[in-house]
Amino acid sequence: MNAPTPAHHLTIAPRATPPELVAALQQRFGAQCSLAQAVRDQHGRDESVFVSVPPPAAVVFAESTQDVADAIALASQYETPVIAFGVGSSLEGHLLAVQGGISIDVSRMNNVLSVNPEDLTVTVQPGVTRKQLNEEIKSTGLFFPIDPGADASIGGMCATRASGTNAVRYGTMRENVLALEVVTAQGQTIRTGTRAKKSSAGYDLTRLMVGSEGTLGIITEVTLRIYPLPEAISAAICSFPSIADAVHTVIETIQLGVPIARVELIDANTVRMVNQYAKLGLREQPMLLMEFHGSPAGVKEQAETVQELASSHGGQSFEWATTPEERTRLWTARHNAYFAAIQSKPGCRAISTDTCVPISRLADCLLDSISEADATGIPYFLVGHVGDGNFHFGYLIDPDNAQEFETAETLNHKLVQRALSLGGTCTGEHGVGLHKMGFLRDEAGEGAIDMMRTIKRALDPKNILNPGKIFAL
Amino acid sequence: MNAPTPAHHLTIAPRATPPELVAALQQRFGAQCSLAQAVRDQHGRDESVFVSVPPPAAVVFAESTQDVADAIALASQYETPVIAFGVGSSLEGHLLAVQGGISIDVSRMNNVLSVNPEDLTVTVQPGVTRKQLNEEIKSTGLFFPIDPGADASIGGMCATRASGTNAVRYGTMRENVLALEVVTAQGQTIRTGTRAKKSSAGYDLTRLMVGSEGTLGIITEVTLRIYPLPEAISAAICSFPSIADAVHTVIETIQLGVPIARVELIDANTVRMVNQYAKLGLREQPMLLMEFHGSPAGVKEQAETVQELASSHGGQSFEWATTPEERTRLWTARHNAYFAAIQSKPGCRAISTDTCVPISRLADCLLDSISEADATGIPYFLVGHVGDGNFHFGYLIDPDNAQEFETAETLNHKLVQRALSLGGTCTGEHGVGLHKMGFLRDEAGEGAIDMMRTIKRALDPKNILNPGKIFAL
């Protein structure tokens, strides 16, 4: 087992960006190409805890697929890295220019290109954010369910194979991307997939691109599945005597095949932080937040089944909500968890874990990791998309305190090894980026990494597409 | 647009299989390696209409992953093709040794390795068939829903990205394979994926392998999602005045988000053939066969909704079934369609199409293709997994009549071009194999094919894994 690369041990080896490339970009893109320090700085970081590395040498604000293709073609000519940028909400250092190069910002490519309500599909540019998309299709009675928390760009969500609270019912980006337009490392534009719901037509390039974190191509168009807004939605919160009780309720819910739309765990720690932050007066016990989608009768049936399961595990203080306003209130605790935690320790940052295990191992994995964290005394919050076996510890550290950093990293490391030994994965939804390169090696093994490496070398022989991420070349 | 390669124009360029390789296989595998003509012949064909090509030079009956790895390593040493064989139910020439080489039969690797009912996963060897799997897990109250018709091997179903009647509710092999063990072209064994339900851990090698038709690796272990047997199942058949009425009922069902488990179309032609074959006395009109899975109340609700939609489109003669025996009777028409059709024209073979279109275009695509087929006078049957927009014409041809062959190929060609122009795919579930290589070029474009080719060359530089399939190298 290899230790992950701690952020402060990160190898930063920027290749020099040739001034000729910058000049060529300025000539081709004019005002769409910025060299301003503030703009470059903004594009050289994300939401991760990584120490800052020098920012990209230039930022190209692409407005079309042709812009992306031209920028990549120029970068290829000068063998210089290119990093796609959506809204900067990555948690794993995906956007850092660790080998230098330029940033291609696709946020201006933010048009919903076509909505096909009768086929339940939509085609968008990569800079469209998920909230924008849902706003724009609201009148059709349809919605795009994937919700990773942040108002991420659809392109970024593809690149990291994002998921979130609704995935237990609607799947992840893996299941919900039908087709892509992608610019390759050679600056060539290709299309993968069609609007057909299924296909056996050759290699699944769509799913090869989804989750490739900008290392195999830059996504310039995305066709997604969308869903009818449920006729009825019902939400509930419920407190449990222990994490184990809450988790066993979830396990039984999933095993019974209840099509629950959301089921989130918040530990007692986090409830306490949220109570303090937002004066919610919630019972300071582990809590499940649930949501049911379907017909009125179907939702009622699902809710009754889960309520029965919860009761048999000591669940109490059930609170139900059916109107949007009541639902929003119930979900306040979940939505505020991160901010409440950060506020609980002034000046701190959160190091977030992202393991995902087979659901039968969830209780074991959680309880052991909680004991481990409690033993160190480091403060943390714990939330989870427990219906999928995915959860996040957020260890709250003082970024200037190397000791705390090491403690958090050690806990994360132990948690990942535990998850892997239980048949799980080091990242349920954040991606590998920089932080999890060591973990990925442990998880996939050298043989599978070699296969990834071979594909990367073949498709991007100059190693210009977001180099230094996922695995070392 | 390029014409597809008709079977009788197939380029057959067997590389000579070195006698040294055959000797080495015999030494390593003893009685597990067969050179018998009958065995070789059986492994040199599948269910496709392709003219026969010389069979593989030897058949290795692998009994373990190590056997597969050793056979591939030897084949690699002698730069000789290897073709994996499950049960031989491919419809697209996947198994034909068009460049010579050896067959690796995995049918003896037929153990269910582990069942994890509490995680809804199962891990099997590739030679396990889908019916065997469902038999072996019956006592757990769980089932594996993917049903391509034939009792195919799970390995083969992975390789072709199979689906079938239940895909509208449960997805295809793309959605239901969690992890694989694969032997690479170098004879190395790797693992892709984990038992976690979702992951963002690097390139999606699992889905790259699923649908790669044995050209990137040979699958030696498969972890699948399984599902709780529905509490209630209800089936129905319903006749419609026209194909358009039946299809519009389906379109509206899907658009409303009704989680229908199966919805199959049979045209009047086929009903007539089935009536003659099995004396069913069905109304000789287009017909939908449907199945609903869920709680008793949920199933009732779904059925009522669909019945209402059907009635508004002239649906009549609704017949319902809830017991397994009654359901089997109702599904007789669907299950007998192929045999009834073949019997309707003695000595004929069926050339099957496999297009899949966005559901809103289904009626247009079907009706135009029916007119076209009717105009030629060629007999055909028509069945479809219409909830997914996927359907199959089976043109009934005399295999010795070149004219009929050409007519069927021309109809197929026109249908594929129509489907592509409507945003669809040339193959919903059969795969590309030999028959659809031209169609894939039309569908994916040279850029995407180039990417597939680059991946193939990188992972299999000696081109030994099922060469000559999917695309020309």
Task: Write a concise keyword list for the protein shown above.
alpha+beta, five-stranded antiparallel sheet, 473 residues, Alpha-Beta Plaits, Uridine Diphospho-n-acetylenolpyruvylglucosamine Reductase, domain 2, homodimer, Uridine Diphospho-n-acetylenolpyruvylglucosamine Reductase, domain 3, disordered N terminus
Task: Please provide a brief summary of the model.
The structure is a homodimer of 473-residue chains. Chain A has 473 residues and is an alpha+beta fold.
Describe this structure in words.
The structure is a homodimer of 473-residue chains. Among the domains of chain A are: 14-107, Uridine Diphospho-n-acetylenolpyruvylglucosamine Reductase, domain 2, CATH 3.30.43.10; 112-228, Uridine Diphospho-n-acetylenolpyruvylglucosamine Reductase, domain 3, CATH 3.30.465; 230-334, Alpha-Beta Plaits. In chain A, helix 9 packs antiparallel against helix 13. In chain A, strand 17 (380-385) and strand 18 (390-397) form a beta hairpin. Chain A has helices at residues 19-29, 37-43, 65-77, 130-137, 154-160, 167-170, 173-176, 205-209, 243-255, 268-278, 296-312, 324-344, 362-376, 402-421, 437-459, and strands spanning 33-34, 58-61, 82-85, 102-105, 112-116, 121-124, 142-143, 177-183, 189-192, 218-225, 227-228, 232-239, 262-266, 287-294, 316-321, 349-352, 380-385, 390-397. In chain A, 38% of the residues lie in helices and 19% in strands. By secondary structure, chain A is α+β, with helices and mostly antiparallel strands. Chain A has a 7-stranded antiparallel β-sheet, with helices on both faces. Chain A has a 5-stranded antiparallel β-sheet with strand order 5-6-10-8-9. Chain A has 15 helices and 18 strands. Chain A starts with 18 loop residues before the first helix and ends in a 14-residue tail after the last helix. At the A-B interface, strand 9, helix 8, strand 11, helix 9 and helix 11 of A face strand 9, helix 8, strand 11, helix 9 and helix 11 of B.
